[in-house]
Give the backbone structure.
Amino acid sequence: MSNPSVENVVIIGTGCAGLTAAIYTGRASLNPLVLEGPLPGGQLTTTSEVENFPGFPHGVDGFQLTQNMREQATRFGTRFEQVMVDKVDFTAMPRKLICGDRTILARSVIIATGASPRMTGVPGEKELYGGKGVTTCATCDGAFYRKMEVAVIGGGDSAAEEALFLTRFASKVYLVHRRDSLRASKIMADRATSHEKIQCVWDSVPVAVEGVEQNAVSGLRIKNVKTGAESVLPVKGIFVAIGHVPNTGPFAPPLEVDEGGYFKPQPGSQVQTNVPGVYVAGDCSDHVYRQAITAAGMGCAAAIEAERWLAEHHGG
Ligand code: NAP
């Protein structure tokens, strides 16, 4: 590895997956370069308290958790740069990452760009997102709504699952869906619609999140799409579950994606892509678990694979 202008490993993304990959590759003396995008720290930074990350019996602030990982990665020689990748050329070795007028050369690449929750875009949603009542993760934030009324927006498996999970805490869960039947699988739909704490609000779309002036959600204004009638659900928490958009940006193609647009690892691997030496980790390739700890696990796996690839092909 004599040419200093060629990076051993470039990691794209600074969520749990990217930072864990940085810790592992840094500790393996690979001197990783991490490229960070518009949301340093990833989705965890948009939630307040993380109570389910192992090792923190009293919970940990999401922002603090990623800061800790960042510090740990830095300790092992990780370098960070704020730069967006516009294009890639994975046809030749080293791999090329084109960032504006600069080209970064890399022997191996770990893509951990995450996924962005799809949002409704109604007034108040953005202002009250993250710790103020609007969230996209019941597993992360559900426990903050004990004995309160909440609303889930959506009609797919995620919405049904979120609504069912929230029944453990909330006094009542409104499941607001724009049609009169759920898209969710029959078993999930049956469970949700028959649950005593869940009230389905059919044919309804959100119009506004109320409470911006108080800086905390005080209700969800909805409209019945058949009658045009508007009403307000008296909820303190709103869980938006209308799908995710994986951030596959300039990488697909050439990297393969599945029908949902998520990176598709090779059969038998969680992290290996169709391009040798290029790996994916975290929510950009996982639409099933989407947890900080599973993203971290995939980041670890990608780092170990990259390390092996470099040892085998570049004598590292
Ligand atoms: P999804 O299946 O795409 O469902 C999105 C839901 O949101 C649909 O009901 C859709 O309504 C609604 N929606 C979309 N845009 C909307 C908007 N702008 N306003 C209001 N409603 C809107 O997404 P998902 O539920 O996140 O599931 C994604 C994938 O993961 C699916 O393949 C799912 O089966 C899978 N998944 C599986 C499990 C499980 O097996 N336990 C759990 C979670 C997710 P319409 O129905 O009218 O289109």
In short: Helices lie at 16-27, 62-75, 138-141, 157-166, 186-194, 292-314. The chain has a mean pLDDT of 94. The first helix runs from residue 16 to 27.
